[in-house]
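Hey, quick one: can you model this chain's 3D structure?
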Amino acid sequence: MNINRRELLRIGALSVFGAASGAKSIAAGNDQRGTHQAIYLMLQGGASHLDLWDPKPNAVSEIRGPFQSIPTSVPGVRLGELMKHTASIADKITIIRSMSHKFTNHIAGTYVTMTGSDNQPDRDREAHTDDFPGPGAILNHLQTTTPSIPVSVSLPNWLSIPGPSNRMPGQYGGFLGSTNDPFVFEGDPNAKGYNPLSLNLPDGITAGRLSDRLSLTEQLDNAARRLEKENGARLDALRHSAFDLIVDGRVRKALEIDREPDAVRDRYGRSKLGQSLLVARRLIEAGVQFVSYNEFNQRWDTHSAIENTYKSIVPPMEQAYAALITDLDERGLLDTTMVVNAGEFGRTPAINKDGGRDHWPNVYSIAVAGGKVKRGFVYGASDSTGNEVAESAVHPADVLATLWQHLDHSPRTIVYDRLGRPLRISEGRVLEEILI
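Sure thing. Here's the predicted structure for all 436 residues.
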C-alpha cells in the first residue's frame, strides 16, 4: 500500500482540524485553543428522567414505572435502581433536573440540544448549509492555525437519519462550512483490531518521505490551485490535516486502546459505549479539546417495553459514565475537562399501554461534571410526577453557554452566517448556580 495524493485527500475529506472557511468570527477573548477540554455524551433517542436521574418513588406505579430508586453518595439524592455505579460517584457530579424546551421530534430535539437554536421546525429534516453549527465545528472555526492534533472529534459514528444524505443536523459545520466538521473516528473500539482510518504508515514510508511526497504534490497542484483559488484553499487545509494526522503519533497512540490495562478496560465495560468513552479519555490526554460520543440513532427511544430495554442498555452506559468520571478525577483531568451526559428530551411521566414512555421535552434531566461544576449537587426540580418544571427551568442553550465559558470562549463570541449576519455562539445564560 502506498499513501499518495488520492489517499491523503480521501482521509482529509472526512474532516478538518480547524481549516479556514469563508466565514469570519469575532471572539470576545482568546481565539486560540484553550486549556480546558470537554466530553459530550449524546444519548440520542431521549433517556427517561424518571427511570434514571429523577425517580419518583412516592408516585403511583403508572408514574413511578418498573424500577425502584436507590440512595447515592450524596445524602437525600436518589437515582433509578439501574444506576448503581453512577450512584457511587454522585458526589462528583451535578444533576440538572429542570431541563426544558418545546420540541417533541427527535431531530429537532437533537438540534436544539447540540446548538441551542430554537429556529427550526418540530419535524424530521436533514442537515443543510444554513444550520447553526455544532460545538465541535465552532471550535474548529475559532482556531487561527491548523493544529496537528484535532480540535474536535466525534465517535464512534455520526448521528444519522433516513434520507438521501443520512445527515442529522446539529453535528456539522452548517453555515460555517463543511471544512469545520469535527473529525469522526468510526468503528467499535471493543472490536478486535480496532484501527479507525488505518492510521499507521506503510512499511518503508517514513514521516520524512511522506513530507517529501506532500511537497511534490503541492508543486504539481500549484497551477490547478491558481485556476481554482477558492477550492484550492480548502483542498490545502484538507491535505495538511490528513498529513498531520498520519504523521503525528499522539493521536495514533490514543487510538491504540490495547495499550490500556485489562483492569481499566473492564472498569469501563467491554461494550462499544464503554470502550468509546475510554478512547475519549485517551484523546483528551492526547490534547483533543472536544470529544463527542454519539449513541446509536434513537437507541433510547423507548415507546414500548421500557423495563426489558433499560435492563439491557442502562447498565453499560452508566458503568462507562461512572468509570469515565472516576478515571478523569484520578488522573487530575476532571478539573479541566467538563463532561455532559444528555439526551434530546425526557419521557412521559405515565407508562403507556405498551409498557413504554413517549417523548417529553417539558422537563427532563442531564448530568454535568468537571471544571468548575459543583460536585454532589442537584439543580432545579420537576414536579411530583416529573411532568413539568417546578423550579429553575434550564434551556439547552444555557448548558451550551456554560460549556463555552468552560472552553475559554465567551458565549457572546460572534460568528457570521452565509448572509453575513452576526450570531452569538450561544444565546443562553451561563449557569452560575452550578459553578463554584
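One thing worth noting: Confidence is low (pLDDT under 50) at residues 1-32, 223-228.
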